[in-house]
Amino acid sequence: MNIIFMGPPGAGKGTQAERIVSEFKIPHISTGDAFRAAMKQGTAMGVKAKEYVDQGLLVPDDITIGIVKERLQEADCASGFLLDGFPRTLEQAAALDDILTGMERKLDHVINLRVDRDLLLARLTGRRICKSCGATYHVIFNPPHREHLCDKCSGELYQRSDDTEEKVGTRLDEYINKTAPLLAYYEQKHLLREVNGEQEIDAVTSEINSVLRGQA
Ligand code: ADP
Ligand code: ADP
Ligand code: ZN
């Protein structure tokens, strides 16, 4: 199963991806996670990406496409993949089509998580991430059992530096200007499915599951 999760920052892509990949046993490919890992390691790519990520701007297409192209060619993607946060521009979408054609593969589903802008701000400013395993929490909507500690691995939780009100504004503008046009692109290919991302986390998961299993 070859899947894309789309949706604005804070829509719940990462939260839902964690659940869906464990059920379908496919790798979770998050370009955001890839950039944060490279930034932490201080690789040349990470240093370049940081200039953009820190400002809430999209990283240039050539860097982003290169990462995904390499990742999709790794052995564990043979059974399928879940792309979370890629593509985010029309250029990235066209490049993905070329990469998949070259591998004689195709997309099965593009799922768009729909969430209103006001709710996105509340979700992003309350988001907390585990330093050790990357699990995502929310101080109000999805709190850990012990404050500041991960339920799964007891790792310490932190707030992303781009999850401030100011950066969120820029990120949402980037989404509207550059990413939202992709919805029409996938609609035309009859791949797009809308899911109401404003429901409880479990309800969103079951709606996605129904779409993926062809029951909705
Ligand atoms: P969110 O979970 O809020 O949607 P991500 O973790 O996916 O955010 O992305 C964080 C940042 O990484 C983005 O603001 C952007 O700077 C960069 N980024 C992630 N994916 C892409 C992409 N496909 N194209 C360009 N930049 C990206
Ligand atoms: P994205 O990857 O799309 O940026 P996340 O999955 O990181 O979004 O979710 C953003 C924040 O909202 C996190 O703090 C997460 O715990 C919370 N969240 C995700 N889905 C829901 C939901 N259905 N209801 C309430 N809060 C949610
Ligand atoms: Zn953890």
TrEMBL record:
Biological or metabolic pathway of the protein: Purine metabolism; AMP biosynthesis via salvage pathway; AMP from ADP: step 1/1
Taxonomy, superkingdom: Bacteria
Residues at which Zn(2+) binds: 130, 133, 150, 153
Protein's cellular compartments: Cytoplasm
InterPro entries cross-referenced by the UniProt entry: Adenyl_kin_sub, Adenylat/UMP-CMP_kin, Adenylat_kinase_CS, Adenylate_kinase_lid-dom, P-loop_NTPase
EC code: 2.7.4.3
Keywords: ATP-binding, Cytoplasm, Kinase, Metal-binding, Nucleotide biosynthesis, Nucleotide-binding, Transferase, Zinc
Subunit structure as annotated in this protein's UniProt entry: Monomer.
PANTHER family for this protein: NUCLEOTIDE KINASE
Domain notes: Consists of three domains, a large central CORE domain and two small peripheral domains, NMPbind and LID, which undergo movements during catalysis. The LID domain closes over the site of phosphoryl transfer upon ATP binding. Assembling and dissambling the active center during each catalytic cycle provides an effective means to prevent ATP hydrolysis. Some bacteria have evolved a zinc-coordinating structure that stabilizes the LID domain.
Task of the protein: Catalyzes the reversible transfer of the terminal phosphate group between ATP and AMP. Plays an important role in cellular energy homeostasis and in adenine nucleotide metabolism.
Family, as annotated: Belongs to the adenylate kinase family.
Name recorded for this polypeptide: Adenylate kinase
